[in-house]
Amino acid sequence: MAAPRPLIAGNWKMNGLAADGVALARSVAERAAKDALRCDVLVCPPATILNRIAEAMRGTKVAVGGQDCHAKASGAHTGDLSAPMVRDTGATFVIVGHSERRTDHGETDAMVRAKAEAARAAGLTPIVCIGETTAQRDGGETLQVLTRQIKGSVPPGLSGAEVVIAYEPVWAIGTGRTPTVAEIQEAHAHIHSELIGHSGERAADVRVLYGGSLNAGNAKAILAVPGVNGGLIGGASLKADDFLVIASSCP
Ligand code: PEP
Fold first, then answer.
1. pLDDT-based confidence at 1, cuts 50/70/90?
2. Which atom in ligand 1 lies closest to the alpha carbon of residue 166?
């Protein structure tokens, strides 16, 4: 099977007020319209401006996603956003299980899977984040951790049109450190093969993004690694130029 079309996704995290967020998204969309990109492009702004960014991106080549959703469709959950609410903004993707949420909000694999299922039910494509900590890598447990997280956090039976996986080594997020190309290749090959074990051949076209200190300087090398189907980008997605250099680096 041919490799799926890569996805370059920007995770803005807790950055962006209305004016600068809309300006950043517009600038990404303008560049994406001019450059003949070999990838899909997605921006995931904070919830407060999701609606405005989704409106600003309507009719452009740039898709919009949320950064989290609750597992329940509605109810007494102060401060949370349900998947139907995220979908209602015009977003079509949602990140679930980012390591910052797993750490800051104690999200378990079971919670992440419930969020991914809620996203599917609302018509969103979940981007399920998995990845090992420094201690797990140093302890030689990386592949076991990835298997455990896939089994625990990814709803089974989904195809590439229904789910995206982001492999994000926790120790590489926001640190400027990245795994070697060989380590990335090993992790991605393992994830692709575990997804087939988990979901059958339907999962053969699921995109597995790499995330963790991906930037304009290392994008070409990392995005060319077999089994890497794009990237989830934090810091470098806040500058349209850098983000577009990364998107233009897709093979
Ligand atoms: C992320 O938070 O998903 C991420 C990959 O961050 P950064 O690119 O800043 O390491």
1. confident
2. 3
Candidate of 93, 98, 215, 233 to mutate for ligand 1, largest count of ligand atoms within 8 Å of Cβ: 233
pLDDT (tens digit, 9 = 90+) per residue, 79-135? Answer: 999 999 999 999 999 999 999 999 999 999 999 999 999 999 999 999 999 999 999
Q: Which residue has the tokens 């339907």?
A: 202
Whether 212 lines ligand 1, by a CB cut-off of 6 Å, is: yes
The DSSP-derived string for 102-158 is: HHHS---HHHHHHHHHHHHHTT-EEEEEE---HHHHHTT-HHHHHHHHHHHHS-TT-
Confidence class of residue 78 from pLDDT cuts 50, 70 and 90? very high
Residue 75 Cα to ligand 1 midpoint, Å, equals 31
**Which residues, 6+ apart, have CB-to-CB distance to 132 below 8 Å?**
141, 142, 145, 146, 169, 170, 171
Burial of 69 (0-12, 13-18, 19+ CB in 10 A): buried
Q: Is ligand 1 within 6 A of the CB of residue 66?
A: no
Q: Is 211 in the pocket of ligand 1 (CB under 6 A)?
A: yes
Counting from 1 in the atom list of ligand 1, the atom nearest the Cα of 214 is 8
Average of pLDDT values for 177-187? 98
pLDDT digits (tens, 9 = 90+) for 210-242: 999 999 999 999 999 999 999 999 999 999 999
Q: Output the residue whose Cα is nearest ligand 1's atom 2.
A: 234
Considering the chain, what is the average pLDDT of its residues? 97
Q: What are phi and psi of 20, to 5 degrees?
A: -70, -30
Residues tagged active-site: 98, 168
